[in-house]
Amino acid sequence: MTISAEPAVNWEKLGDPSPGSLVDARRQLHHAAQIASSVGFTFVEPARDDSHTNLEWVDSLGALMSKPAAGDPSFHAALDVAGLRLLLVSGEDRREVLSSFDLDGQTVEAAYAWLESVIERFSGSKLSKGIVRSPNPIPAHPVAQGQPFSFASPESFAELRRWFANSDRLCRKIEAETPKASPVRCWPHHFDMATLIEFQPAQGRDSGRSIGVGMTPGDEDYCEPYLYVTPWPYPHDPPLPPLAGEGQWHSEGWLGAVLTGPNLVAAGGADEQSLRAAGFLASALKECLELVGVSFPERADT
What is the pTM of this model? Predict the structure, then answer.
């Protein structure tokens, strides 16, 4: 199977504001995403891989949306990234917003209180145990200590929406073209958008063979957003050949191919950025396949 370097369609130009200026907005969104994912913790049957807590990008809403709550009526919680708003969305029509809550000037506690109250109104019943919150630690931000959310830089939130939307398009293209690729989802713990290509299912902590492909809007390794391709298991002291599209290898703490936000933005306009991203992913996938010692199986319809 040939790894396609064709760009994703409908790419939105990135770089205004710059990738390095998005840190505070990204951290606020990371904390807000935990509120949306609490619907998975509270109302969805637990899965061994925690997939019941993950979020799906819904482009028509510009939002990261939870799994549907079990029961009738069903609903989702969602995070409107550009608007810094929480949404309650119908489980039957994923575009119907039942209620919304502007986080600007509000605290985390107020947001959870709103979510609980609006769910009770929608479902017509009291939540006996309240909303279950994620136990996973995430990067610190003052909102976790009671400081209100701030929408003082709306352009930063709008830019992060473009990063999530573009990355979802890239990853969905890989999902559609690649056997064994998982549905594209945002994982609220790390706040990355990704698909996992699983060649051998993991039977334990360090078993299995897979390649992860995705985007994180920034973390402890890189303050700005970046695309990544990671092989598993990490090979010991492997040869790391050059990558296309200004990609580079990351090898401290984890091994993977990375295209940083500044290097992606530097490509130029929307078309050039899209071509650079697609070329990087094709190159990185090819090299990571070599590192894990596998090849893509042919699709049945080829």
Answer: 0.95
- pLDDT for position 201: 78
What average pLDDT does the segment 260-280 reach? Answer: 97
- Can you read off the two tokens belonging to residue 101? 């809550």
Buried/exposed 1-17: b ≥16 CB within 10 Å, e otherwise: eeeebebbeebeebbee
pLDDT at 227 over 90: yes
Beta strands in 164-207 (DSSP E): 185-187, 192-200
Spell out the residues 6+ positions from residue 74 whose beta carbon is closer than 8 angstroms to its own. 68, 90, 91, 92
Q: CA-to-CA distance for 142 and 139, rounded, in angstroms? A: 10
- Inter-residue long-range contacts of 128-134, CB under 8 Å, 24+ positions, other chains counted: 131/38, 131/41, 131/42, 132/38, 132/41, 132/42, 133/34, 133/38, 133/41, 134/34, 134/37, 134/38, 134/41, 134/53, 134/188, 134/189
Per-residue tokens: 13: 């130009």
